[in-house]
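Page 47, continued from p. 46.
Same chain as before, 120 aa.
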Amino acid sequence: MRLKDKVAVITGAAQGIGLGIAERFSAEGARVMMLDINEEIGRTAADGVPGATFFRIDVASKQEINKTVEQIIAENGRIDICVNNAGILRTGDVLEISEEDFDIVLSVNLKGAFLMSQAV
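Result:
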């Protein structure tokens, strides 16, 4: 158990790669904090991961990130591992994608990872 008693925070953990990371870290002994904006799917996913706790969070929000990181540290004493996995995609022809969609993608995929890294 290489991650025994480590506290791991994983964004975008409700499904896909993030969920796979959460499952693997849990199998290696980590206390897994699963963060995602999709509360329904995230809570269900966390129920299937031993030792996992779910947090509903929008990683594009500095306020939500800081509040969640503070709560995790208060409850666990520390954070040992941070996986910035959250990401979204808006597809289409470059001439058809709106500036708003472009900004949302950057806010989650780039700014979210930056803010989460700073907070942790």
